[in-house]
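Archive maintenance. Older records in this collection stored only the sequence; we are now back-filling the structure field for every entry so that each record is complete. The fields below show one back-filled record exactly as it appears after the update. Entries are processed alphabetically, and Trimethyllysine dioxygenase is next in the queue.

ARCHIVE ENTRY
Title: Trimethyllysine dioxygenase
Organism field: Trichoderma semiorbis
Length field: 428
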Amino acid sequence: MLFLLKGRTISSGLGRRLSFIPRQASAALPRPRFYATTLETGPKGLTYKSDDSGSPIKAELSKIWLRDNCRCAQCVNQDTLQRNFDTFAIPKDVSPTEILPKSDGVDILWSDSHKSHYPWSWLNFTVQDTNNKKPTIQDERRLWGATVSSDPPEVDFEDVMNSTSPKGMAELTGKIRQYGFCFVTNSPKTPEDTEKLLETIGPIRNTHYGGFYDFIPDLALADTAYTNLALPAHTDTTYFTEPAGLQAFHLLSHTPPTNKPADEVLGGQSLLVDGFHAAETLRKESPDDFEILRKVKLPWHASGNQGVAIAPDMAYPVIEATGEKLHRIRWNNDDRGVVPLDIDVDAWYQAARKWDEILKRKESEYWFQLEPGRVLIFDNWRVLHGRSAFEGLRRICGAYISRDDFISRWKMTNFPREEVIASNMQLR
Ligand SMILES: C[N+](C)(C)CCCC[C@H](N)C(=O)O
Ligand SMILES: O=C(O)CCC(=O)C(=O)O
Ligand SMILES: [Fe+2]
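Back-filled structure field:
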């Protein structure tokens, strides 16, 4: 048992012993100041205690849990950070034969003669996290309406593509995380460069529309996107179990029909609506309607293409939220299936009508003109998109990127790797 001196900061030795962190890393886990920390055998295994100026923490740690989370270089594959042993080969009754607190952490000698090391930073991070559920990754959202048009989030193409500094990519993914969308300005006006840009965020997701898409209104695929019809605000791929995380549009050209003068207004304006802002407005104005759209699960489908009939693994609601936190909006009224008859159907339609009315409010709608050189990338789990009807030949390219690939890029360019890995490994 050891009482460490209050108030000392942990020596730089911490970096030396954080064996579960890749060798090249510095110790970027939140550095706890030194405080009275003890780890001793207790009633249920091992009792961890620390008190850092008045916020005492105590946790009973299971022996098998602690052994299974050994951070030593033998137990954690140092090249892959994967667990490097068979958890179930550990004897069920494994227990510590010696507890050896050190300056940067604590060693434990186990009855199966394995010697573990746990950095104090890892133990504090893990135990505090369990006790306080403090999110470590800052994740603030900025809800917006039509006024976002005065200063839409933008990042320059060169900055994003700068391979010597992640700053541009950090800013792009950070703005998409905060606003749900961002423009990449001064982009080369080619599909090839657009594809390269999107690939730097994450792998392009393949669907029945292909991978990187480059389309015109020729009904090449059986979907209204491949027409010149107006499309009301919607999220894409509502019919996939996991809707596309990011979607991108880069207008390459829009040429008038032959019988029209070159300067004729052709339509094809673009629309964005912040689905999270709309959902919060609904929750405030009509909490019952919000609850109906959150609770009622619906079928969704994509059926137009020969040989393709897509539907998700189960029914999903329009609004997915846990408590206060909004998780995902799924809304494409054209792809929505039949409202199930085992619910109060008229109540659902009333709720959906209110939702539709909020989406279509002038103060909700951000209308703008896509143009060559200005790539739009948005969070398809939050932001709805649409367009006005148009004439002429309008060519757009872009791609879908899966959610987890986007979140990985956002975290890894905005936060220390160790913090991201530690927080990814634990329930948040
Ligand atoms: C061209 N691109 C592949 C982007 C779209 C294809 C159609 C997407 C469909 N309307 C939906 O809402 O999911
Ligand atoms: O043509 C556009 O502006 C967007 C069409 C659309 O909604 C899509 O391709 O998902
Ligand atoms: Fe769409």
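Update note: The first strand starts at residue 36 and ends at 42. The mean pLDDT is 89.
Entry marked complete.
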